[in-house]
Amino acid sequence: MPEAIQIYIERVIEYTPRLVESLYETGIMMVFAMVAAILLGLPLGTLLYLASKGKSLENKLLYQIANIFVNIVRSFPFLLLVVVMQPLIRYFYGRATGDPVAASFPMMLIAIALYARFVEQSLHDVPKGVLETARSMGVTTPQLVWKFLYVEARSSLIIGFTTAFVSFISYSTIMGVVGGGGIGDFAIRYGYQRYETDIMYSAIAVIIVFVIIAQWLGLRLAARLDKR
Amino acid sequence: MIDIKGARKSFVGKNGDFKAVDNVTLSITGKEIFGIIGESGAGKSTLMRFINALEMPDAGQVIVDGIDVGTLNKNGLRKHQKDIGMIFQHFNLLNNKTVEENIKLPLELHKYKNPLSVDEVIKFVGLEDKKENYPAELSGGEKQRVGIARALVTRPMILLCDEPTSALDENTTDEIVGVLRKAQNEFDMTVVIVTHELNVIKQLCNRAAILERGRLIDTIDVNHSVTDRSDQSYYERVLEVLKDA
Ligand SMILES: Nc1ncnc2c1ncn2[C@@H]1O[C@H](COP(=O)(O)OP(=O)(O)O)[C@@H](O)[C@H]1O
Ligand SMILES: [Mg+2]
Predict the structure, then answer these.
(1) Which site in A7, A175, B4, B203 is 20 to 30 Å from B118, CA atoms measured?
(2) B92 and A140: CB-CB below 8 Å?
(3) Ranges of H-type helices in chain B
(4) Which residue of B has its CA nearest to A153?
(5) Ligand 1-lining residues (CB < 6 angstroms)
(6) What are the residues whose beta carbons fall under 8 Å from the beta carbon of B134, sequence distance 6 or more?
(7) Residues on chain B touching A223 (C-beta within 8 angstroms)
(8) What is the C-alpha to C-alpha distance for residues B184 and B204, in angstroms, rounded to an integer?
């Protein structure tokens, strides 16, 4: 038994450089996805909220366009989304396969759509009284968003982001199909295809640990910011 | 100061259109404390919300300080709302902001020529030791004091109060009535109070309009009770109320 453990440890050490490299690739995809979620998903979710019925920018057409975009991206089978986006990525980035930056494009798209939906929901949960107060003070729409909505929704925006983040990790694991690498690709390549199950399980354990840490950090931050 | 002429407002309800405010004409003089009373659903809030354009009448005119509110564009409406303070039954504080941040909020939205300082209003409503607290840490009466301070900090020309004491117990109601009276004395505003609590009207108002199912039934001069009950102890109040009865 101790011998088996020793062999396992040796193998893990042998694979560590490749594991670290794939974690780095996952990191790149995650950073792109998170930045897109914040820079584009947050405004899109806010637009979905503001353009909805009875809100300050009520606009059926605008709402429908944004809504359809989010629905299509979210219901598109992700693997097929990756494939379908190939020509587009090649056009914008020069190459569509073989590196994590190219693989980040579909990640960004799903991140935007996913987080926009969370944001929309969080904003709808802001109490009516807060909106009424803002209106009675004669706010502009940007003031409404920054000084009222984001303040009162902040912990739920963070919880939504945490949930989205966990999904991004899951989506990132299939980017191996276009040579994007990452921890999921590592698990498949070494563990599944080469029957080195112990390495595969180790990689999966690493993913799970990351998810748990992200989850814990997000919920802690949200709780700390929640004064309700 | 405030002239409402033939104002009507309907909402679409289950059984067709529902007249919330039905042809109401009334006039509120500058610097008076005016009450709007009536049963729940009588249209009091809707009528008051015409004044700061939270609701727009379907027909009729609302003229505030010489300006016909119905003619204002978006920008004009914001300027109009800027000088009208409002307090609410459920306080409507931002729970993620401290007392001080809540009170400061209106000053971050517009430029005011002559606002009060945040410290001044906090002192005025007696919350010096709660500045850094969040609303969740306050009692109902304290929350309403924050609401009042937030409304006063801009030195509003008009203060609208929608059921300001209806979520409070009797004791606290008298406290808040005291604060409102003191505010009107000190800051020289026109105050409009919507409530179904006759006691509050009796203690505060010069005149009151009575609404019934959207219609103005009567406008009466209130036989203003001068005793300021906010200085009495709970025991004194019990004696006064129960012995009178
Ligand atoms: N935004 C709205 N949509 C539909 N009905 C409304 C709306 N606002 C008020 N009402 C209805 O209009 C009537 C009068 O409301 P309100 O002015 O709030 O009465 P009060 O303040 O006297 O209780 C009520 O029956 C209420 O249900
Ligand atoms: Mg009401």
Answers:
(1) B203
(2) no
(3) 44-51, 74-82, 99-109, 118-124, 140-152, 170-187, 198-204, 234-244
(4) B96
(5) B 11, 20, 38, 40-46
(6) A227, B95, B96, B97, B98, B99
(7) none
(8) 10
Q: How many residue pairs from chains A and B have C-beta atoms closer than 8 A?
A: 62
Per-residue pLDDT of chain B (245 residues; tens, 9 = 90+): 899 999 999 998 888 888 999 999 999 999 999 999 999 999 999 999 999 999 999 999 999 999 999 999 999 999 999 999 999 999 999 999 999 999 999 999 999 999 999 999 999 999 999 999 999 999 999 999 999 999 999 999 999 999 999 999 988 999 999 999 999 989 989 999 999 999 899 999 989 999 999 999 999 998 876 666 666 677 776 777 677 64
Q: From the CA of B42, which ligand is nearest?
A: 1
A95's tokens: 């190459």
Q: Is the ipTM of this complex over 0.90?
A: no
Q: Write down how long chain A is.
A: 228
Please state the pTM of the whole predicted model: 0.90
Nearest CA to ligand 1 atom 6: B11
What is the C-alpha to C-alpha distance for residues B132 and B145, in angstroms, rounded to an integer? 15
Which CATH architecture group holds A2-225?
Orthogonal Bundle (1.10)
**Which residues are CB-contacts of A49 (< 8 A; sequence separation ≥ 6)?**
A55, A119, A120, A123, A124, A149
Closest ligand 1 atom to the C-alpha of B47?
17
Can you give the residue ranges of every domain in chain A?
Answer: 2-225
Structural domains of chain B ordered from first start:
30-57+74-242 (3.40.50.300)
Find residue B27's DSSP bridge partners: B3
CA of A152 vs chain B CAs: smallest distance (Å): 6
Single-letter residue type at A50: L
Q: How far apart are CA A67 and CA B91, in angstroms?
A: 34
Nearest to B152 by CA among B187, B182, B177, B181: B187
